[in-house]
Write a structure and sequence with these properties.
Shape: globular
Oligomer: single chain
Strand content: under 5%
Largest sheet: none
Number of domains: 1
Helix content: over 70%
CATH superfamily: MetI-like
Length: 270
């Protein structure tokens, strides 16, 4: 009886099992619970006087600043402007990176020619290129879009190339055996095989594009969340700074979850 009971217990799923599975409801519950606990700790630390609230305002103070900014400082309009900038730059980066990455992986001569240059540029810090961007494009909207594109394209193109390299060679050989030409093999076999990984990498690099928003919007900007945060920083309005950061985080979280849901729906066979 004891042996049987122990065997049954061993077969029961454990949340601590190595690479174990969790239900969707459990994942949401654990995530929400952890976030609430973190906010409560933050609130307690801020109210306890252990830190100066000028540097670490409480969550309730940040929430109050956020509501005030929405009502009186057009924060939602600024958020819309920033979102539009990010999506324009990201779309341009994706439209360029996907075909170039596929060509780099499919044809060795293209990869040999472009990969050293892309590797060199992607390690350059974007903030260091702000002065050059202003010289080339001025201080208008083009500079902001260029900086966002710059922080995304060179990372994404190498991820696309890696996605194409991971397509099994057997798929290519079978397609050729069945009479497919190179164009058909790329379009109907290789691209479809790499598509799940490509969508996932697009989701990741979209997050990277958001991380360059503040850099892009401090260049003679008069709109956008970066502009709001930078203006509040000048006057040490920490609650407003953190409220702007929270808005970016919320937009990023919502976008990421929507793209995750799209990925699960589109690639149910994975």
């Amino acid at each position: 009886m004891v042996t049987t009971r122990r065997a049954v217990n061993r077969n029961q799923p454990s949340i601590w099992a190595f690479r174990g599975a969790l239900s969707r409801r459990a994942q949401i519950g654990i995530g929400v619970g952890t976030s609430v606990a973190l906010l409560l700790i933050w609130e307690a630390v801020a109210r306890s006087g252990l830190v100066n609230t000028t540097f670490l305002p409480s969550p309730t103070t940040v929430l109050g600043a956020l509501l005030t900014m929405i009502q009186k400082q057009s924060l939602l309009w600024h958020a819309g402007v920033s979102t539009l900038r990010v999506w324009i730059a990201f779309t341009l980066a994706a439209v360029m990176a996907i075909p170039i990455g596929i060509m780099m992986s499919s044809y060795r001569v293209v990869g040999a020619a472009l990969e050293p240059i892309i590797d060199f540029i992607r390690y350059l810090p974007v903030p260091a290129l702000v002065p050059l961007s202003i010289i080339w494009f001025g201080v208008g909207e083009n500079t902001k879009l260029y900086l966002l594109w710059l922080g995304t394209f060179f990372q994404l193109v190498l991820l696309v190339a890696d996605d194409m390299r991971r397509v099994p060679q057997e798929y290519i050989e079978i397609a050729h055996t069945l009479g497919a030409n190179t164009r058909q093999t790329l379009r109907d076999v290789a691209f479809r095989a790499m598509l799940p990984g490509l969508v996932d990498n697009l989701r990741i690099t979209l997050g990277w594009c958001w991380t360059y928003l503040i850099i892009a919007e401090i260049v003679a900007a008069d709109s956008g969340i970066g502009f709001v945060i930078w203006t509040a920083r000048r006057y040490m309005k920490t609650p407003e700074v953190m409220a702007g950061v929270v808005v970016i985080g919320v937009i990023g979280l919502v976008t990421d979850q929507l793209l995750r849901a799209l990925h699960r729906r589109a690639f149910r066979y994975l």
